[in-house]
Amino acid sequence: MKKYRIIIFAAIMSLTACSDWLDVVPDGVATLDMAFNSRVQALKYLATAYSYMPKNGGSSDPTTLGGDDIWTRRTTHFSNRFSLAGLDISEGNQNATSPVLPRWGSMYQALRVCNTFLENVHLVPDLQAWEREQWIAEAKVLKAYYHFSLVQMYGPIPLIRENMSVDADVYAVKVEREPVDECFNYIIQLLDEASEGDMLPTFVLDPASDYGRITKPIALALKAKVLVTAASPLFNGNNDQATLKNHDGTLLFDTTFKPEKWDSALAACKEAIDICHEAGLMLYTYEDAANRYNDTIVLNVTLRNAFNLRSNSEVIWANTQMISIPSNGGMIHASMPKLNPDYVNSNDICKWLGMPIKIAEMFYTENGIPLEEDKTRNFGDLYNLRTAQAKDRFYIRQGRTTVDMHFEREPRFYAWVGFDGGVWFGAGQYNDKDASSLRYLAFKIGETDGTEGQGNWTGYIPKKYIPYEAQLNAINNISSPSYAWPIMRLSDLYLLYAEAINEAEGPNGANSAELFQYIDLIRARAGLKGVKESWDTYTNSQKYNTQAGMREIIQRERSIELSFEGQRFWDIRRWKTAPTEYHTPLQGWNMMVSTIDGTEEEINRMMYQPQLLAEQKFGIRDYFWPISTGDIEANPNLVQNIGW
Q1: What domains lie within the chain, and their CATH numbers?
Q2: pTM score, whole prediction
């Protein structure tokens, strides 16, 4: 592999496109000459191309509050610290006049920057040939990613293959949307060009300085995700979009299902997995070299670190434009709870972000089976009260009373979901020899205030966002490691591969061994038995033997493993299951219990009463964002998405 020069990329990434010589709409040739007159200046322009990456996992990300897995109440107290715009999507209040959290303008600006770089990088005089090739490949992957981000959000789009001349005819700039299959083909073309030969390195030599830069595993993993998306029901034989066409009658969706799309996706997933393994990527596990913790705690730390530990072994691509830090307005700050005995008087530590009951129910039992299918559980008892015993002490505070559904659940539930009485390992307390000394989440009576708008409104916290070392310090500020938001993890790629195999040939085809192998690797890391063993032992069905049954298993596994990472938002759309998921009312526990009268049992019974939080709406129009009416007025050649 050719030399991969070490550069101080992290500092360069902080630059924006606001400098005169980085103007994304250059004023003249002199401006471009200055931008590409040296390696240093050209590298800054490449950094500008990176700077447009969508901010995953923040208040500007529509997947944060726009889906059905994270919820909060509209309050002035919270909205002053965290944008609640995503709730408009969640509640069906999207509009075409002023679309909520759009990417149309920013992504097309990003594409212009990428094209400008690609058209001028040959002018840089002091750039070695191998490095020029690498930078070109990086820009092409970014260009593919930005096009893909637009397709996910808008469906068929105008493709920006190259920048138009400043003296282009007025009619030339009034572009049309291109059929969605052509959009996917162009994205794959860019990724194939970038992945040729040794243009991209297999891995970065200095993660400290080059973290987040594009590698060959990133390019091929993105290709796999693009092809799985293109093969999915939303884009493959979707009759709901049959009437979407350009003014000249060009159909923008082919309504014929093409099974060969899944064959292409299968091959791409396999190729991506192979290069990831070659690069040394593997499912993360915490190595307790000092033998400090018991197996339960080691597994808990493994699962929490798999998402929020910087530079862990399974992160294929981390978004360095979205660093999660414990400051005001971030995911750590918006989720961090007061833990027993953190009874601090701080209005800013209020664990605002919550999750509905249905997401808590989504996780498996300890047997690796859905609650509703596990024959060892009585589904009708889920909301009955139970008191934690000694055997539960590393999951639920011994002696704490909570609902039955919180007991005997899979390790990912306890690692990624915070609930009243749930043990919260870390946060300054790392002695697991005495379970009674471990921290735990303790909702206080009267803590959630409907008038002031403070507190948690569901009874659950997305614990996954919070590193296990995070804690409140003496002045009620959060001290926590930071991490770059993972765009793609190896577990994501493994599940895409399993999905592609099942859709291409079912669960009993030529690649069935690898189908189960990769799902079972993820389950084993989560402390669970394999699919076949679990279903054979704890259910009365062998649903894994049918394509439809295996599809349910894979989709459930993705929803659990990638929970709260923004993947579910796009998955339920491409699967076309969003109407069912959104039409299930969002419920939470009664967190506005304000009385201290009555026995502990009476207070618990008041708290553990499901309350309606919101009734979501989702129709055919909600699969895609509307194009702003202002953009359509400026370019009448653009046709609006269905329903807007």
Answers
A1: 9-54+103-280 (1.25.40.390), 320-486 (no CATH)
A2: 0.93
